[in-house]
């Protein structure tokens, strides 16, 4: 028993003697883990880990009255920003950070968090640089202008060799443009270029990890731009994730790791636990083995068939030419099979039972490949609706299934297995069009049979 020790020594004694509760044991383990990394990580990175592993913001919000929650959250975010203001958040120095906090405390009131800071968590769009976004998160993030080339190789620069363990710079050189650099500086230029690439990758990692739910990456087409962020992201993603010339998959930690060195600790680990994400697979990726059990096609053939038919239907309903993009080249499809699938899609559009879904005078608006994101009590659910048809008072969700099945009982069994998927599709569309009555239709392209799901 420790009578005169501090609170941590008392907690350690209780833990070692086995008299702590599960919550206190967990607190002791986390404190020890954070303590071991305090001399290795910058203060900002360490605080990030503490915030997310300890669920600090959620705990503060749960323990405070509603009138003070926004202020507490703003102050917690402000603490992270303060950590960045000490040596740009690069070096592990808790003592210097505490000294900086003491200065902030003694500063005038106008230097402390103001009312604008309390509004950071409200529903509004914020436009900022990636450096300014460090330590912040948002449900949806747009990374704009990602297909531009850096001009660093065309400008004058400097090379500074300053190890973090040293008190002063070991080497410092002014470097001319890359095209003008003499041979004696070629090695230094190469080192500087490698350093810039590493910092560029780290900055890209920061940009891609600001999104909690959805990340949109965009850029203007530029044939002369080389080694851009957009190209790096595209190359890091698996080939099957890139279709129709766009990226259509959630970006994972593994994908990000391929872009640059990832920190040992990541706040994404906390996000995965806090937000249970569930993806409703789009029909173009028919990977539900249960629903393919009665089909004569193999799993690979079914995916291939579904991918093509969905693309054909999209082109035909948008009056586009059937030119297959580069993402389809990995599939060795015979010309005969392709012609059969095109004809299957055309017959579906001509079918009298479905004409009201495709004739332009039968509806007000129609959209193909509609992405949805729905927050439920169980977590975040996202997916892609094949087609959405809007009339004056109705919203009709359409989902294509390309199973090669004719048996009515088997079709009914397959349709029933997608009931929950169709429910979530309807719920997401209801939030967009609350004034319209929403229904969903599962259409089998091969048998020309449909099953309707609604809330009645």
Description:
This protein has 456 residues and is of the alpha/beta class. 40% of the residues lie in helices and 17% in strands. Strands 7, 8, 9, 10, 11 and 12 form a six-stranded mixed β-sheet that branches. The protein has a two-stranded parallel ribbon with strand order 1-4. The protein has a two-stranded antiparallel sheet with strand order 2-3. Helix 3 runs antiparallel to helix 5. The chain starts with 6 loop residues before the first helix and ends with a strand.
Key terms:
alpha/beta; 12 strands; six-stranded mixed sheet; single chain; two-stranded parallel ribbon; about 450 residues
Please specify the SSE layout and strand pairing.
Elements: H1 7-17, H2 22-37, H3 43-53, H4 56-63, H5 66-85, H6 94-105, H7 115-118, E1 138-143, E2 157-161, E3 171-175, H8 186-208, E4 211-217, H9 229-236, E5 242-243, E6 246-247, H10 253-257, H11 268-274, E7 277-280, H12 299-317, H13 335-350, E8 365-376, E9 379-390, E10 394-401, H14 408-417, H15 419-432, E11 437-444, E12 449-453
Parallel strand pairs: 1-4, 7-9, 10-11
Antiparallel strand pairs: 2-3, 5-6, 8-9, 9-10, 11-12
Summarize this structure briefly:
This protein is of the alpha/beta class and 456 residues long. The protein has 15 helices and twelve strands.
